[in-house]
Amino acid sequence: MYRTDDDEIYALNGVDLSVEAGTTLGLVGETGAGKTTTALSVMRLLPDKVGIVKKGEIFLEGRSLMRLTEADMRLLRGNDVSMIFQDPMTSLNPIHTVGDQIAEVLKLHYPDLGGDAIEAKVDEMMGMVGIPAERKGEYPHQFSGGMKQRIVIAIALACNPKLLLADEPTTALDVTIQAQVLKMMDELKRKFGTSMILITHDLGVVAQICDRVAIMYAGEIIELGTVEDIFEGRRHHPYTIGLFGSIPDMTKKTRRLSPIEGLMPDPASPPSGCGFVERCPRRMEICFGVSPDAAVRGTHSVRCHLFAHPERGATTR
Amino acid sequence: MSAPLIRTKNLKKYFPVAGGLLHAVDDVDISIGKGETLGMVGESGCGKSTLGRLLLRLVEPTSGEILFKGENILGYGQGKMKELRKEMQIIFQDPFASLNPRMTVSEIIAEPIKVTGAITNREELLERVFELMETVGLAERFVNTYPHELDGGRRQRIGVARALALNPEFIVCDEPVSALDVSIQAQILNLMMDLQDEMGLTYLFITHDMSVVKHISDDIAVMYLGRCVERAPADELFEHPSHPYTKALLDAIPVPSLKNRKKLDVIRGEVTSPIDPRPGCRFAPRCPMATPECLLFPPELMEIGVDHFVSCVLFR
Amino acid sequence: MTTGSGTAAGGRVAAAKKIRRYKKKSQMRTIWLRLKKNRLAMLGLVLFAAMTILVLSADLFMDYEEDAVAQNLSMRFRPPSGEHLLGTDQFGRDVLARVIYGGRISLFVGMATICVSLTAGAVIGASAAYYGGRVDNILMRIMDVFLAVPNILMAITLVAALGTSLFNLVLAMGVSQIPRMSRIVRSSVLGIIGQEYIEAARACGTSDARIIFRHILPNAMGPILVQATQTVARSVITIASLSFIGLGISEPTPEWGSMLSEAKGQLRYRPYLAVAPGVAIVMAVMSLTLLGDGLRDAMDPRLKN
Question: What span, in angstroms and rounded, lies between the C-alpha atoms of B109 and B218?
């Protein structure tokens, strides 16, 4: 929940997520769905007086993060859990060299490591992200957007974290650079065995590198499953169907797209019942008043009355 | 093909910068027929946004010609330009920054009409504003609201309404849906296509999103570092991409489908500098099929199929 | 576009009625509501308003000649009492009355200074920003020269050269504030010129003048307003300083600075003589500063959250 001067904004309304070691979970949703809030909550980086976690727990390898002190969290950040933010242009400090910025995170978590060892590791990381080590004395503004993002990734992976949170890491990049960066992230992920939560709104990216997918809407996870479930499965939340219908398909010639009517509900006044009810083409009586539970079938769960109550006349699509 | 509505000939725009001369738009010839949509794609630094602004003379070209209905508009004086503005308009990318935060929706939409004096009667003006709002799908009740009270999709509709206010024939659309959520994008794209059908509009649709451009364009021009490297009808471009850059661009797009999961064949390297570029093909440093000839070749667009032009040594 | 003439007229009237149905939510009102929530800013506003009202309505319960100016040597140096709440000064004049009437001068000078510095500063700053290039360079370098000279010094120089009439004082202080104001206006305008809605305005052929007055200035108002409150505060101090050293308002007109000057010899035995005008100056400046900060936050709440 965010508390500002004007409003109380309920950003997340009950999010249950889990990520297996070494896998990538794609967190998909549009603006306001709550994806960034989820990531910031895991890192406990919500803005100080404005963001509050009212309820819930976060476990990392069985360890509860909500109970840790700020000092303990700081040891965790960068070391066990790392985050990459959306805009590479502003993620790096303009007054420090890139080598120093990579070194900083190493010095923080490995205080016993000597200067030479740290420099060697910096060189190694830069090599891994495809930037010549000779450039470590240069400043961020001397690099392009794609390269800056690689440096950010190098910093994030320097201490070999178990979990990487990537918030729209390639959205601001050109599509050819995006391809380079995604490929690199995939390789590094495989090499280190890092788990990743990839936040994006681009279903193409999800299909490319994610193992499991969670689709968020109005602060809830409305569909969850493996990437096969989402792209090839048959039961889908109406919002998911709408999302796929909004994307122009490059393989077919369609005259008109089938977008979803309306807008996401105002997070300052969370609705009772299903958050999607105003825009759902298949809504029923019950959707207005009762919030649906997750209907689970194997690895695929959908939070929709259509599937929770098969006897109410909903069949699979 | 009918006479084009708008055409450029050897259009150039160079900016003097610290390191030398930045070739933003370098010798570009494009033409768009009436009622058609030319999609313009390319990545950062390719010059597509600059080109859009050049067509409207929001930026003055360094050299070349811009022909609107056969006449070179670069010779127009102030008076004639004002008349011309009624026929050519622009929709901007950023629905936040393109609207004056201190003006209401109706004031924003009415502004072009007031400025050109097209309607002076106050009630008539209001009627026109309501008409435009209805055309773009903005509910009546927003007439006196301020932009910051509305979401991105609605703000962009205001931008469209403003562009339509003077009944233009030609609209430059500079990434009009890039800043919007996917579901809103679809709504706005549908709107723009419907408007084109109803009003016979001609669009220059600038975007970096390949799937969007295929959907909305009749023809597509691919730009790289200020030059047009390939131009073809939309379907043809996707079926037979010829220029190595076009192929790389199409290969780099992640497709939302598991069946076509590509191996992500990436082009190496970064875009070279647009400042004082070397002669020859600009893509050569990154091209997997480059030959020494590429650095000498002053690229021209050659026709390799019906309406399909490429600028590449491989097709000599 | 228009249908038959009869329905056209009907359509127009309907449109006019429609737009009245949807009231414009005034932006002033939104700013005011935000300002109200800021307690410190409201304190500043209330304080300043109270001082202004008191100063302007002084004639209702006091007489200028009698209380503030007329000398009454038999009543010299009386300590605070029921009759003279803040005591009397070396000429037997009521200190409280002099403080209140002194406020008039400060208020007047403050407002007048704003008029001078704002008009000149806005024109210079806006032109520099809008036309850019050489014009910008020339104007701003001239402003830099003026900025290099300390405020007080400039005011002193001008007063010394032109004489100590009230008009000259206002002129001097106004001129000394122009450079700062022009910089604020310039940076404000520069920030706005980069925005796409200015390009949009150009795309329909809007004249330069209309762009400046209809699009740029209304949006630049925020920082300019805040700077204006600062300017008033600064001029209160400046006029007091000038009077303190004898270059400002001449006797017997009451003025906080000159009162301080007169009281400095009495600090050991009659500190209230200095405290009174001093507190008045502090209250005036502080209330304006608080108000100015509050206005800035109210106009652009994104800065806070």
Answer: 29
| Chain A CB contacts of C37 below 8 Å | 5
Return the number of other C-beta atoms located less than 10 Å from residue B241's C-beta: 19
Strand partners, A200: A28
Q: Domain locations in chain C?
A: 30-303
Residue C211 pLDDT > 50, yes or no? yes
Mean residue pLDDT across chain C: 81
Domain, as residue range, for B190:
4-87+168-315
CATH top class, domain A2-312: alpha beta
The conformation of residue C69, written as its DSSP 8-state character, comes to I
DSSP helix/strand/coil, B79: helix
pLDDT tens digits, A42-89: 787 777 666 777 677 777 777 777 777 888 878 778 788 888 887 777
Distance between CA C174 and CA A146 in Å, rounded? 51
**H or E element at residue A99:** helix A98-109
Tally of domains within chain B: 1
Whether B143 is covered by a domain: the verdict is: no
Task: Provide the H-helix boundaries in C248-304.
Answer: 256-263, 272-299
What is the spatial distance between Cα C182 and Cα C224, in angstroms, rounded to a whole number?
A: 9
Please name the residues in contact with A94: beta carbons below 8 A apart, sequence gap of 6 or more. A139, A140, A141
Binary contact (A4, C37; C-beta < 8 A): no
Query: Mean pLDDT score of chain B, rounded to an integer?
Result: 86
pLDDT in tens, B139-157: 888 888 888 888 888 899 9
Asked if B252 is an interface residue toward chain A (Cβ–Cβ < 8 A), one would say yes
The predicted complex's ipTM stands at 0.81
Task: Name the token pair of C120.
Answer: 């000149």
> What CATH number is attached to the domain comprising B296?
3.40.50.300
- Hey, which residues 176-215 in chain C have their CB within 8 Å of chain B? 195-197, 199-207, 210, 215
Locate the chain A residue with the closest alpha carbon to B45: A174
Alpha carbons A225 and A206: distance in angstroms, whole number: 12
User: Per-residue pLDDT tens for B203-232?
Assistant: 999 998 888 888 899 999 999 988 899 999
Interface test mutation site (partner C, options B54, B91, B111, max chain C beta carbons within 10 A): B111
Note whether B315 and B304 are within 8 A (CB): yes
B38, two tokens: 């030319």
Residue C1 has pLDDT above 50, yes or no: no
- Quick check: C247 and C160 in contact, CB under 8 A? yes
- Supply angle C-alpha A179, A182, A184, rounded to 5: 110
How would residue B108 be classed by pLDDT, with cut points 50, 70 and 90? very high
| Domain assignment present for B181 | yes
Helix H or strand E segment including A239: helix A238-246
Is there a contact between B112 and C13 if contact means CB atoms under 8 Å apart?
no
User: Which CATH number is correct for C30-303, 1.10.3720.10, 3.30.365.10, 3.20.20.80, 3.80.30.20?
Assistant: 1.10.3720.10
| B48 belongs to a structural domain | yes
Write out the E strands in chain B.
4-17, 20-28, 31-33, 37-41, 63-68, 71-72, 88-91, 170-174, 202-207, 219-224, 227-233, 302-305, 308-310
Chains that touch C (3 or more CB pairs under 8 A): A, B
- Which residues in chain A touch residue B151, judged by CB atoms under 8 angstroms apart? 263
Q: Between the CA of residue A56 and those of A1, A71, A164, A196, A244, what are the distances in Å?
A: 12, 21, 21, 21, 31
Please tell me which chains touch A, using 3 or more CB pairs under 8 Å as the contact test: B, C
pLDDT digits (tens, 9 = 90+) for A157-215: 888 888 888 988 888 788 888 888 888 888 888 888 888 899 988 888 888 888 999 99
